[in-house]
Design brief:
Layout: E1 2-4, E2 12-14, E3 18-21, E4 24-27, H1 32-39, E5 47-53, E6 59-65, E7 73-79, E8 81-88, E9 99-105, E10 111-114, E11 118-124, E12 129-135, E13 144-146, H2 169-172
Antiparallel strand pairs: 1-2, 2-10, 3-4, 5-12, 6-11, 6-13, 7-10, 7-12, 8-9, 8-11
Length: 188
């Protein structure tokens, strides 16, 4: 099952089927054909990544990679629970500066498609939360960028006490969207 993540026409919340029996359950977490059918898009993933946040309240993001190394991401929670947020940072887009979010858990199996030109971040809602994601662009550290996760102009409704956020310095000191030098422009 697929839902567009409102207010965006190119970000999707995917809900893979789970097949339960007395032993537990089984689910297909990635199928090229199903992704194409559900989203109308084709992609080739180049890398799989995972990270673990040991403490609830750990925030990572809002991250992106500038062209020519921009990345689309397919994100899921493999352990625990997290709230995932994305922001359209393509100047001129009808949804520029707007955010969308979804709770991803190891139990709901939801996956979020984050298109190129979006900043992405999440907060761990439980201790020992793990996120797994596929990217369709090569990692290029010189092209990384970050937007402040709590930029008041974005108004992301993070579902935790933001005064307790655990962050690395680069995320804490990131610029607001209006000051970020990301270079993304909407192409229509």
């Amino acid at each position: 099952m697929t839902n567009r993540l409102l207010p965006f026409v190119d970000a999707y919340l995917l809900e893979p089927k789970r097949f339960n029996d007395k032993r537990g359950w089984f689910s297909v977490t990635w199928s090229d054909a199903a992704f194409n059918e559900q989203t109308g898009m084709e992609t080739t993933f180049l890398q799989d990544n995972m990270s673990r946040s040991t403490k609830a309240g750990t925030v990572r993001g809002l991250h992106y990679q500038r062209d020519p190394f921009a990345q689309g991401k397919l994100v899921r929670c493999s352990r625990g629970a997290l709230f995932d947020a994305i922001v359209d940072i393509r100047v001129g887009s009808p949804t520029y500066g707007r955010w969308g979010g979804a709770t991803l858990t190891e139990d709901n199996l939801r996956q979020l498609w984050v298109p190129r030109g979006y900043a992405h971040g999440f907060v761990a809602l439980t201790d020992d939360t793990e996120i797994a994601y596929k990217v369709d662009g090569q990692y290029a550290p010189d092209h990384e960028g970050t937007i402040r996760w709590n930029d008041p102009d974005l108004g992301i409704a993070w579902p935790f006490d933001v005064s307790t956020a655990l962050l690395k310095d680069e995320d804490r000191d990131a610029p607001a969207l209006k000051d970020a030098q990301h270079g993304f422009v909407w192409s229509g």
